[in-house]
Amino acid sequence: MYGDPTVLRARVHDLREQALDVRAMADHLVAQLDDLAWTGRAATTMRARIVERALHLRAAASEHDVAADALAEHAEEVAC
Description:
Layout: H1 5-34, H2 41-79
């Protein structure tokens, strides 16, 4: 195994923080829909697209978590 466990753990922390930021961004986007007074077909379509984009953001955040878990495991193996 290769790598500095301290550096690897710092990257794990960064990935987890990024996942939280991306989830917060998705939540913020969806929350803004509640304040939107716009109505009609275009508004309905835009709302659906925002919800879809938020799902994609949450999926990206989950991928960050998966990467962080894998890197954390690697850091532990390097430390041994």
